[in-house]
Each structure stands twice: as structure tokens, then as C-alpha cells.
């Protein structure tokens, strides 16, 4: 699982989804039905199934991702790892937010938070992630007060002692900064969005290819909202150059969204030249995917 997670950060879910599903079917299924591993095998299967959901999401297959997350939640209920259960609820919250279902996203995040607190599970990073998921959803609903309060709670929670389950994905200061930047941008608070997106980029090293690209793409949107299209082009060009080997429809869709936003500035020569290069880059990437918006609900954000 650790090896899959590391590879996913660098090359994207599109390249790895079939491999992870094959591993689940070939190696994990026999251990679930007849192996001597007991609850450990069930928890491992839940973690890998949740990972497959994220890879499906990264490849633009959100219906499939939702089915994986639901199956993972069923498995972990048997295995009994409460941190992993909360982690899966956080993933379901992210998917709901991505599909424009902010109210469902808040409900799922709160369910995970309440479960951790009721069982007194020491999982500061997981609780911070769930608080941040709820904050993003409130931002999309235009509730700046709730959003700011939850982000502050998440920041304080992340400072507590960590005793994470080995089966959950990491959530750190860079993750928090990225989601805070998204939230502030959604609320139109550009100064804070710029500060948080700069921090998210700085905290993501080169081997975190997708995460760094997503932070840069938020920064590019902030720069456009501030009226700095040339700077936005420079940041977006870095994303194109750094993600040539990344199979992530999430990143590709973000690039396409920026193409639409930059079109308003095509009267400027530098922007016009960059738009031509961006269009070429998108053409090269689209053939890798089943390009279509059926999984994306009306009004849903690209992330």
C-alpha cells in the first residue's frame, strides 16, 4: 500500500488504477476468504479499496470512485479501524464536494469527526482533515464564518500529538494550506487565498507531483482573480512542464478550466501565445481519457 501511495503521488491514478484493482482481486480476495490474517486482511482490503477509489476519481471515474468508497466503508466496519473509517468518510466528503453536493459533504465530514471524538481515538491529523473538508463545503455555500472557524480548529488540531493508523493517508500543513486556499478563493478573499496557495506550493516538494500541481493551479486562479494574467501563465506553464508523465484527469480538467479563464485576456500578446501552447498540451492529454462530463454534477467545482 505504501508503494502504491508513493507511485500515485508521482504518476497519478490513471496509470495505477488497474494495477491496484488487480492486486485486490488476485492477492487480497483469497486472504479475505480463507486466509489466516483475520481482521488485518479486512482492514488492508478496506484501505486498498479506498485507495482504488481515489485513483478512479483521479482518472475522472467518479461513479466508480463512489462505489469503491462505499465498499471500503463496509469492509472497515468489520475490521474495526476507526481512524481508517473516519478517513474513508473524509474521502466520501471530498467526492460529494467535488460533485457539487456541499450539504452531503458537510454531513459526511461531521459524521467522521463525531465518530473519532465519541470513540476517543487519538487521530489529530484525521480530525483536522475532516474539519477542513467541512470548511471547504461551507466556503462553497458562502458561509465564511463557519469556514473560518473550522479552518482555525483544523490548524489547532493538527498541532496535537499524532498517533496515526498505518492505513490512512497523510494530512499535513501542506494539505491544510491547499484546502484553505481553495476555501478562501471560493469566498473571494484573495489576499488570504494568495498567502495560503503560496504556502501550499512551498510545502510540496518535487516528488509530490500532483499535489504540487494542484497547489500551483489554485495559485494561478488567484493571480487571475487579482488581474495578473502574465504571472498566471507562468505558473500554469510550470504545471504543464512538470506533469507530462502524470495521468490525472483532475489536473487536466483544472488546466482546461484555466484555459477558459485566460481567454478573457487573449488580447494580450503573452497570454495569446500561451493559450496556443496550452491548447496544444491539452490536445495531447485528452486522448488518454474518456473525456466527458457525465460524472460532474451541475455547478460542481473541478476539484
Would you give an account of this structure?
The chain is 74% helix and 0% strand. The longest helix has 20 residues. It is built from 14 helices and no strands. The two termini are 24 Å apart. By secondary structure, it is an all-alpha fold.
Most strands sheet: none
SSE series: HHHHHHHHHHHHHH
The total beta strand count reads 0
What is the terminal separation in angstroms?
24 Å
- Global outline: globular
Percent range of helical residues: over 70%
Mean pLDDT over the full residue set: 89
Radius of gyration: 19 Å
Question: Poorly predicted ranges (pLDDT <50, ≥5 residues)?
Answer: 290-303
* Multimer state: single chain
Content of β-strand: under 5%
Structural class: mainly alpha
Count of helices?
14
Q: Which descriptors apply to this entry?
A:
single chain; 303 residues; mainly alpha; disordered C terminus
State the gist of this model:
This protein is mainly α and 303 residues long. The chain is built from 14 helices and no strands.
Task: Map the helices and strands.
Blueprint: H1 2-11, H2 13-32, H3 39-58, H4 62-79, H5 82-98, H6 102-118, H7 124-140, H8 144-158, H9 173-187, H10 190-202, H11 209-225, H12 229-242, H13 249-262, H14 269-286
Helix pairs in contact: 1-2, 2-3, 3-4, 3-5, 4-5, 5-6, 5-7, 6-7, 7-8, 7-9, 8-9, 9-10, 9-11, 10-11, 11-12, 11-13, 12-14, 13-14
